[in-house]
Amino acid sequence: MSITRALLTSLLISFACTIFAETHNYEFKVQEQAVTRLCRNHRIVNVNGQFPGPTLDVQNGDTLFVKVTNAAPYNLTIHWHGLRQLRNPWADGPEFVTQCPIRPGGSYTYKFTITDQEGTLWWHAHSRWLRATVYGALVIRPKSGSTYPFPKPKIEFPVILGEWWDRKVISVLRQALFTGAAPNTSDAITINGQPGDLFRCSSQGTTRLSVNKGDTVLLRVINAALNQQLFFSVANHKLTVVATDAVYTKQFTTNVIMVGPGQTTDVLLTADQQPGRYYMAARAYASAQKRSF
Question: Domain Plastocyanin-like spans what residues (predicted)?
């Protein structure tokens, strides 16, 4: 009898957890698009006409269906970086490892469930260097009824750091493979797809975040750069690190963080300075040449 009662209790708990989980359906259309950066016109590959691509905002325990339609001229797959594919490893995305690439004109639907992860991850193309422009944030919130292990921020904001080349990235990679030399260094560091206004022909679309004095902001910092470890800071403000790679950490406060390629770091920032404009800045590690704030 006691065994039956314990089993029934376990089933009820499992059923209750299932009730609060949701199923999300997304559609990704991968395509080429004309953009202008650093005074030059380029055609880049992106998702749904967005660069960076769409942010997927879900909860721990949710199930996702993502249909990817490839309207670009290259084979590709999508990788869910840092996600524990415990029951669905075939959805992980590396081409020729867990799947064949999605050919131009083809489509593929990824199905996976978030399992005991909370925080910030990201997704990106996992074919050649297409991830230079095919990427986006994956935000995993606590389950319904749960909270963050830190005071709830007033604002949450993804900060995706990337690299920009003044050439097609496929050509940059092809030249490196042909010559055996290291790939050419990128021409700019980007924040949410835009170089900062210290670069030539900076856009009005340069990333801006408006906050009120006293507000606490959760910055979800993602390093989507291909090759560079990046320092990140906000002028005259402290950053309190609360999570890395969708794992909560022992909190500490610093002036600057360093994020490696593919890594994520969640930081709290309190707007405790006089109202004004304060730069968010990213800079490559010292071994990278010609990379400035």
Answer: 30-144, 157-290
